[in-house]
Amino acid sequence: MTAVATRVRGTLGRFSPSRAARALGIPGVAAAALIAVVLTVTLLAPVLAPYDPDQPDLFNSLAGSSAAHPLGGDALGRDVLSRLMWGARTTLSGPVLIICLSTVVGTALAVTAAWAGGKVDAVVSRLLDVLFAVPGIVFALITVAVLGPGVTGVVLGLAVAYTPYVARVVRSAALRERNMPYVAAAWVQGRSAFAICVRHLLPNLRPIIVAQSVSALGFAVIDLAAISFLGLGVQPPTADWGLMVKSGLDSATRGQPLEALGAGLLIVLVVAAVIVLGDRLGKEGDQR
Amino acid sequence: MSDFVIEAAGLRKEFGQAVAVDDVSFTLSRGQSLAVVGESGSGKTTVARMLVGLETPSGGSISVCGRPRRGGRVSSAERRRRAREIQIVFQDPYSSLDKLQRIGDVVETSLALHFPLTPAERRRRALELLEAVGLAERHASMLPRQLSGGQRQRVAIARAIAVEPEVLVLDEAVAALDVSIQAQILNLLADIRERSGISYVFISHDLAVVHQISDFAVVMSGGRIVERGDTRDLLRDPQEEYTQALRAAVPRPGWKPTRRQPA
Amino acid sequence: MSLLKRERDQPEESQAEKGLSGGSLLDLRGLGLAVPAGRDWRPLVEEVDLSIGRGEAVGLVGESGSGKSMTARTILGLTPPGARVTGDIVFDGIRVTGMERRALRGLRARRIAMVFQDPRAHINPVRSIGDFLTEAMIANLGVPAPEARARAVRLLSDVGIADGERRMRQYPHELSGGLLQRVMIASVLAVEPDLVLADEPTTALDVTTQSEVMAILDELRRERGMAMLLITHDLELAAATCDRLAVMYAGRIVETQAAGALTATPRHPYTSGLMLSRPSIDQVVHRLPVIPGRPLAAFEADDGCAFAPRCAHARPYCADGRPAVVELEGARVACTRAGELTLQGES
Question: So where does this one cross the membrane (chain A) (predicted)?
């Protein structure tokens, strides 16, 4: 595995901001900048958030915008701005975990299927087709039914649901790569299948894997927020954008729309930025 | 050891219903160069791929260095042993190298797989091999895209001979190169054979190239061998109609293109 | 129609007849092509002077990067995006450079046709062979559809495809590369152009098919009095099928001569080197005489003679500026030492 580490370091070593910016284009750079801002705020929430997100304050209940509370308070009077900042952590960490799991499993399945071919490939491909046909929410409902409401069950369910999303694209790219003469040359040299997959195929597939996982991340944010909105994912009183849209709708009918608007807008912006970035990374991968 | 480095008998390969190679037999003696000549669809590349184990024959047998090659799954140790008997260079110099692997690493990986060398020894040997194929030390740290087609083909040759195989299969290895580069690579191959006593199986559609590089030739058409013999005799006085047509179609001084019967 | 009976082996006679036919059909004068590279221009073709007479076949020979294909494409206005064309292209007395797109399209449709290396990439895969062949006749020449179909069948028979009716209903994927290239040639004949640009028309084909396709192209071109510019890397093929040859290196023409004369007495060291380094089917040499190094593109060349770094006959002064083109016993050569060198041709 040291080879992979070297390869990654090598890639980073050749990284230059201006070249990356040119490859991403204006939309890509804007998306990356937005994600960077959101991530910074997320990490610095303990420092930046003006209030404790879980501290009720009855004087601030359903209050509108004010100097002390720019986005007002929710039904329990908790500071909406602080809850949005803290909420980013739960809202984004779940999807990241989902995508990490599905990317690792999906890539392993894809490369194994592409390399082995024949029956293995047929079985894996059919399995992926079946998984792909079932909506992610259904998997999440199943795991929640088994494990009870909570983040763990939903993350596992969605990780399974997103596996084919990564695996199908990576498999077809791996098939193409596997038929390249340099792979045949390595085989004739006596290299093991594992070494060829890890040291030749994976590095060459990296751009496609990254692009596909990043755009999957966008959809995972929506799915997880939707599930929290339904009350099956993140449980109150934890701050979470999906939950905030739900409770915010209630507040909105009582004259405080900022909670639902803020959370909803952030979900839309982050998802859009992630998908644009994924698309750009994919295009860059094509040109290589 | 046997006199023959390769003995192929009754080789056959089917892809579904189609028969790509049918009853192909030949032998190759140590240090000799054998050309397998044919047009597209003649089955010559399939023969090359069967020799190096990239395809499993549907019938017939192959012995390399006196040891019969059995099909099916083989251990990695056995595969590495076979690798030291036979290596291959492909046609396309662009896709036969990993675009992310540096030139020095290509050759070092090959050495690491087969010889117990210290990193320093391996490095030194890799540079020797690059030099032997006409590349310089500075090329070792380059990526394939920084090299020309001819230079990449030199790297592919260095990678193959690093293993010190008995036989090198060259599958249209100079077909994609410019004329002036083709000559350089053909001379390089002749030098390597003279120095090391390696044997070649030279797969090609180009009779002039075959004439220059091989001692013996078999002519394939539709998966079968239609004529065989000493390359010079074969090209000077082809006996079979197909070989005659093939020879007549090669542009040369005083040549005129000719039409066959309407298809 | 004395042109048709002309023997290729008699360059003097053909020169004389060209004079009678009233000058050349195509004239390239100082043609240059450059593409933008950052803030700079990257030259691909430089100062190309070449003329093709009516009914004449000229071979443009070179290795990769020599600019031979780009020269042909520039004639048709098929240049890369943002490219800059300099010099003049004069076709049948009309200046093509700077011509408006519409007029250029008309020229391309009726008077100059191109045969590409890969017919599969240039024939619409979802339309039948019949549609492909009749389209240009119906759209550009205003031929009624039934007549166009009848003509297409005749053309297929001309290029050696007997069962034309059946082939017309087939689709490109059902035909082999050799057959498809013949269809491509038939489509070129359909509009009866004055000039055919053939860009490596047989490179993707087997040798026996190459021989046949070249024979068809050659025969039909002569019958119809069409001129041809054959772009190829294969000097032997060009010598066998063309009246005159031009050899390109690093974006420039280094030598132009009648085909027979060029192969017998090449005047440029590159031409000679190219011929000698090609293995022969008639004789084996211990080692091939090689040209060291690799072919350069125009933008990679230094200030002096672009070939000098690879040239066995180079002198220090070869690095001083581009060699001027000199006339030498019917040859045009861009070599400072052309007059003093005796170079080996084909044996």
Answer: 24-49, 96-118, 130-162, 214-234, 260-278
